Amino acid sequence: MSAHAPHGGVSVVICVYTEDRWEDILAAVSSVRAQSLPALETLLVVDHNPALLERLGKEFKESEVVRVLANAGPRGLSAGRNTGIALSRGGIIAFLDDDAVAERDWLRHFAAGYDDPLVMAVGGRTEPVWASGRRPAWFPEEFDWVVGCTYKGLPRGKVRVRNVLGGNASFRRSAFDAAGGFATGIGRDGDKRPLGCEETELCIRLSRARPDAVLLIDDRAVIHHRVPAGRERFAYFRTRTYAEGLSKALVAQSVGADKGLESERRYATRVLPAGVARGVRDFVLARPGGAGRAGAIVAGVLTTAGGYALGSLRARRTGATFSVVGIGAAEGGGGPS
After folding, report:
1. CA 1/CA 115 separation, integer angstroms
2. SS3 state at 161
3. Cβ neighbours of 293 (radius 10 Å)
4. How many CA atoms lie within 13 A of 3 on its CB side?
C-alpha cells in the first residue's frame, strides 16, 4: 500500500483540557499540519471546558482538517481519547499530547509500521523539553516516564513491545473493534492525582483479544514534550511515582500480575540497579548529580512500591474501579461511561 494513503489515512487525536496550554495546543496542531505525510484530520477533544471548546471552535472554524469536539464521556483522558476514536475517520488513529510537538516524519514512520497486517499499534520516542533549559542534575533518565517521556532502559530501534506509551502512539482502528477503548477510571483526570497506565492496560487487553497482534515502538517517530517547572521538582517526582504504583496495582488486578508486571520486572532488576551504580560511580568521580540520581532511583522504587502495595490492598477489597466500553458508544452524541 502506498505510504501516501496508509490504510485509510491517519487521524490524529489531541486531548485538551485547559486554556493555560493555549500556545502549546496551537503548536501541537501546527506540528501535525507540517507532517511530511499529511494527516487525514486532526481532532481536538476538549475535556469538559466550555470556554476552551468555544475558543478552539472559533480558532479553527475555517479549517477543513481540524475538528473541535467535546469529550462525550466522563471527565478524563481515557474518555477523551475514546471520543476521538469514535468520531475519527482514519484507518489509523494517532495520539499526541497537547503540550508536545511532533517532528516532520512522525506520521510517516507510524504509517510504515502498518504495512504488516499483524501490526496493531506503533509508538514512538518522546524527548523532554525542560522548562529550565536542561535536565535537573538529580533527575535520572531511567525515570523519564515520570514526565511522560521515553526512559532509559526501553529498547532502541524498531522493536516489539508489550505496550506503547499513550502520548506518542498510534493504533489500527480494528484494534479498538477487537479490544474496546481506553478504560475509564484508571488514567488521568486533570484535577486528580496523576495516575497513568491506561495504555498499558489497553495493550495487554488487545494482545489477549488478538494473540497474533504485533505492537511496536519505532524510535524514529519522535515528539518533543514540554516539562513545566513544577514537574522538575522532587515533590512531583515522588507524587507521580506513588501514583504509578497505584495504577499498576489496578492493571495487575485486571490482567494478572504476570502480564501486568512483565516489563517492570526487567526494569526493576536490571535497568534500575545499573542506574544506581552509575550514580554512585559519578558521585565517587565528583561528577554533578551522581548521588542525587542514585538517591532518586531508590526513592522512586520505594514510593512506586508503596503505591502498588496500597493499590493492591484496595483492589482486593473493592475490586477494579475502572470500566471498558465499546468505542461505538460515543457515536451520534452518546458517550463512553
Report:
1. 7
2. coil
3. 26
4. 12
**pLDDT digit string, tens, across residues 125-136:** 999 999 999 999
3-state helix, strand, coil in the chain (%, to 5): 50, 20, 35
Q: What predicted TM-score, i.e. pTM, was given to this entire model?
A: 0.86
Give the burial class of 58: count Cβ atoms within 10 A of its Cβ; 0-12 exposed, 13-18 middle, 19 or more buried: exposed
Strands (DSSP E) contained in the chain are: 10-16, 41-46, 66-70, 92-96, 100-102, 119-130, 158-160, 168-172, 214-227
Alpha carbons 140 and 286: distance in angstroms, whole number: 17
Q: Tally helices (H) and strands (E) across the chain.
A: 11, 9
Q: What is the largest CA-CA distance in the chain?
A: 63
Closest CA to 83 of 69, 104, 99, 103: 69
C-alpha span between 49 and 68 (Å, rounded): 12
Tell me, what amino acid is at 183? Answer: A
Residue-wise pLDDT for 261-300, tens only, equals 555 666 676 667 677 677 777 767 778 788 888 888 888 8
On whether the CB atoms of residues 147 and 100 are closer than 8 A, the answer is: no
